[in-house]
Design a protein that fits this description.
single chain; 332 residues; alpha/beta; Rossmann fold; 2 domains; nine-stranded mixed β-sheet; two-stranded antiparallel ribbon; 11 strands; globular
C-alpha cells in the first residue's frame, strides 16, 4: 500500500483527495501512508545543491564592486519578502563559513534575523556570539540584536554574550559614558577578537519598506537631514553614501555600534541586504571597503548593475573606498 500510494502521489502526481477517492481510503490515511513510505525508505527525496561556481550575475557584480558576491535565487521585489527569502536562502552556505573558535559578531535587522532562524543546527562550543549593535528594541524584535545573538548561539551550539545597551541613546555624552561601563565592555571587548562579522544594511531614510528599520528611530526632520547629507543606508550602524564614504551625523554618534576601525580588522565580514530599497545600499556597503562578502538576491543585484552601468562613475565600482575618521581615500 505504501508503494502504491507513493507511486500515485509522486509519480502520477495525483492529489491526496484523488488518491483517497481511487483507493477508498480516507485522506488522513493516505497522508499517513505517504509519511510511512518516507520513514521506511520506500520514498527518498533529494534536492540538488546550489552550484559551486558563482552565477554570471554574481561574477558581474563582484567584478563591478570588488568584493565576493553571493546571489540568492528569487524574483521578489517587495522589500519584506525579498529580505526574508534572501536570509533563508543564504543560511546553509553561511553555516560553512562559521569558525570553530573565536568570536562571531552580528547586527540586527530583518534579513539577519531570517538568516539566523534558518541556520542548520551545529556544534561550535569554541565560539561565542556577540551583538555588534545595541539591542533592546521591544517594538521591532528583528532589531533586538541580543535576542538574535542568543538565537544564533542556540542554533549553532555556541555561547553568547549580550550587549546591555539600547541601540540609540538620547545624546552623545550618554553614549560615550555607556560604552565605558564595565557591563558593556564585558561584551564589546570581543569586538577585537572577531573571526566573522555578519552585518545587515538598512535602506535610505526616504524608504518605508513595510517593516521596522533603524531609520524609524528618526523623526521626519532627522530623515530629511540624513537624506540631505546623501545617506543611502547604514552598515553596522554607520551611515554611508553611495560612493562608500561615511556620513558624519549626531545620529551615528548616539548609536551603540562596533567602530569602523574595529570592523576593518575582522578577517571575514559578510554583509547581507536585499529588496528594492537596498539597491543603493549594497553598492555603498561594498564601496566602504568593510565587506569581504556581499549577499543579495537576483533582482537587487540586477538593479545594482544597472545603476553601476548607467552612472557616470560606473568605472569606480571596482574601487573600495576606505574612510578613516573624516578623511576618504580610494584604493584600486
Amino acid at each position: 500500500m505504501m508503494r502504491l500510494v507513493a507511486e500515485l502521489y509522486y509519480v502520477r502526481e495525483l492529489g491526496q483527495p484523488e488518491i483517497a477517492a481511487l483507493t477508498g481510503f480516507s485522506v488522513s490515511k493516505v497522508s499517513r501512508l505517504l509519511a510511512a513510505a518516507r520513514s521506511a525508505g520506500v520514498v527518498r527525496i533529494s534536492v540538488e545543491g546550489a552550484p559551486s561556481e558563482p552565477a554570471p550575475l554574481a561574477r558581474a557584480l563582484s567584478a563591478a564592486l570588488g568584493v565576493e558576491v553571493w546571489v540568492t535565487p528569487g524574483h521578489e521585489t517587495a522589500p519584506a519578502m525579498a529580505a526574508r527569502l534572501c536570509g533563508v536562502a543564504a543560511a546553509p552556505r553561511l553555516a560553512g563559513e562559521l569558525p570553530e573558535e573565536g568570536a562571531i559578531g552580528l547586527t540586527g535587522g530583518y534579513t539577519v534575523e531570517s538568516l539566523v532562524a534558518a541556520l542548520p543546527g551545529g556544534s561550535h562550543p569554541g565560539t561565542v556570539v556577540v551583538p555588534l549593535v545595541g539591542g533592546w528594541d521591544s517594538s521591532n524584535p528583528h532589531l533586538n540584536s541580543n535576542e538574535i545573538a542568543r538565537h544564533m548561539a542556540e542554533r549553532i551550539g555556541a555561547s553568547v554574550r549580550l550587549l546591555h545597551a539600547p541601540g540609540l541613546l538620547d545624546n552623545e555624552i550618554t553614549t560615550a559614558a555607556l560604552l565605558s561601563d564595565s557591563a558593556v565592555t564585558a561584551t564589546t571587548r570581543f569586538w577585537g577578537e572577531l573571526r566573522l562579522a555578519l552585518v545587515g544594511m538598512s535602506g535610505a531614510p526616504r524608504f518605508a519598506p513595510g517593516y521596522g528599520t533603524v531609520m524609524d528611530r528618526l523623526d521626519p526632520e532627522g530623515r530629511a537631514r540624513l537624506a540631505e547629507k546623501g545617506a543611502v543606508g547604514d552598515v553596522a550602524g554607520h551611515l554611508v553614501r553611495i560612493d562608500g564614504s561615511f556620513v558624519q551625523d549626531e545620529w551615528e554618534r548616539r548609536t551603540i555600534s562596533i567602530p569602523v576601525e574595529s570592523l576593518r580588522n575582522v578577517p571575514r565580514v559578510v554583509g547581507i541586504a536585499a529588496g528594492s530599497n537596498k539597491v543603493e545600499t549594497i553598492i555603498a556597503g561594498a564601496r566602504t571597503g568593510l565587506l569581504h562578502v556581499l549577499i543579495t538576491d537576483e533582482p537587487t543585484a540586477s538593479a545594482a548593475l544597472r545603476i553601476l552601468g548607467a552612472g557616470a562613475d560606473a568605472g569606480a565600482g571596482a574601487r573600495a573606498v576606505r574612510t578613516s575618521g573624516g578623511g576618504t581615500s580610494t584604493a584600486d
